[in-house]
Amino acid sequence: QIRVVESGGGLVQPGGSLRLSCVADGFTHGYTFRHYDMSWYRQAPGKEREFVASITNVYLTTKYTDSVKGRFTISRDNARSSVYLQMDRLVPEDTAMYYCYVQGPAVWGQGTQVTVSS
User: Fold this and answer.
1) What is residue 104's predicted lDDT score, i.e. its pLDDT?
2) SS3 of 6, please?
């Protein structure tokens, strides 16, 4: 059974930084973490879950939602079965639960809370 675990959330002041981490394991049938594209999503209170960033498995092509371009950076380490989200110049509007998502198997993590507030 695929397991996805996020960490790194917390309370940060506007303008600050956080680095989220996500470890995914438990892949079967000869597949491993390196076979899958990975994404980060977020959901703020009272709002729908939205796409934040993604990274492909082979060419490491990245995509970002417009509101985080230039501030967030997604990366991955296949040897550690991990994907990261470096978040800089945070603003209150970034406050949300952040979820890691394994594309293909369509598996979500439990989320990690990010709160940007003074």
Assistant:
1) 87
2) strand
